[in-house]
């Protein structure tokens, strides 16, 4: 082994140890407004998480608290006030990073009624709206709700499709969603095996098939970021950086 081989190996090891998300620039899926969902609990925790994301090279954060009728009855006003408090504290601490607020809407009958009534919905950017479903069973009104969003001129983003068991073996439904031009957003953590082996393999398949339009950290707390720092050990870390993602355009 030559000294050049040692240098190359050392360089490779270092790249595995240091997570960089400069290539992504904008994180469009996280839970950083304190105390309003299952994400950050305090303002101090929120600031700590934001500082870590900034340290990875993230330039802008669009945080997306849950809106779920039975658990997190957040409103645009609650989210806007939470963002203002975060922005003020970041300014006070001279932490230079842009943070905006949107939402991750749980797809159920209550959400469907919001759409039908023309209620204000928070978008990630322009008409892009982030939605999620339960993990086990396909919602009975899934396609109907997505169609109604499209009628109202929204572009649906399906959050972490790799985590939905009902999609794993339903290639027809996956294709139906893609045919409707629903954007798929995967969680970076899925590629670390953080959720399950099945989610990791499905995420890898979606990447191989060039199905992914957006990626996000889905950051809730420090444990999420601790696990995320193992991402460079994934063989898909470099593949992610080659995808034609929309993150930079948000």
Provide the CATH superfamily. Metal-dependent hydrolases
What is the string of helix and strand elements?
Answer: HEHEEHEEHEHEHHEHEHH
What's the end-to-end separation, in Å? 47 Å
Number of helices: 10
Average of pLDDT: 94
Helix content: 40-55%
Quaternary arrangement of the chains shown?
A: single chain
Count of folded domains: 1
The CATH architecture can be named as Alpha-Beta Barrel
Stretches where pLDDT falls below 50 for ≥5 residues? 1-15
Report the sheet-strand fraction.
5-15%
Description:
By secondary structure, this protein is of the alpha/beta class. It has one domain (22-249): Metal-dependent hydrolases (TIM Barrel, Alpha-Beta Barrel). Helices cover 41% and strands 14% of the residues. The protein is built from 10 helices and 9 strands. Strands 3-5-6-7-8-9 form a 6-stranded parallel sheet. Strands 1-2-4 form a 3-stranded parallel sheet, covered by helices on one side. It is globular. The protein starts with a helix and ends in an 8-residue tail after the last helix.
């Amino acid at each position: 082994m030559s000294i050049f081989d040692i240098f190359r190996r050392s360089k490779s090891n270092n790249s595995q140890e240091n997570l960089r998300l400069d290539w992504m620039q904008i994180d469009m899926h996280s839970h950083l407004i304190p105390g309003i969902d299952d994400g950050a609990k305090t303002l101090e925790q929120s600031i700590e998480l934001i500082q870590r994301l900034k340290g990875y090279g993230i330039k802008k954060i669009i945080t997306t608290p849950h809106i779920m009728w039975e658990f997190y009855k957040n409103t645009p006003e609650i989210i806007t006030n939470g963002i203002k408090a975060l922005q003020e504290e970041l300014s006070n601490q001279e932490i230079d990073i842009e943070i905006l607020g949107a939402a991750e809407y749980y797809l159920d009958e209550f959400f469907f009624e919001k759409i039908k009534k023309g209620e204000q919905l928070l978008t990630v950017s322009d008409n892009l709206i982030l939605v999620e479903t339960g993990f086990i069973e396909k919602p009975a009104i899934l396609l109907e709700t997505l169609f109604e969003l499209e009628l109202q001129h929204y572009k649906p983003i399906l959050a972490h499709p790799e985590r939905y068991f009902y999609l794993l073996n339903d290639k027809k439904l996956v294709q139906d969603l893609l045919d409707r031009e629903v954007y798929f957003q995967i969680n970076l953590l899925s590629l670390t095996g953080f959720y399950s082996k099945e989610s990791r393999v499905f995420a890898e398949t979606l990447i191989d098939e060039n199905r992914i339009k957006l990626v996000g950290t889905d950051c809730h707390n420090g444990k999420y970021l601790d696990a995320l720092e193992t991402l460079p050990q994934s063989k898909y870390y470099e593949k992610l950086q080659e995808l034609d993602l929309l993150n930079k355009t948000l």
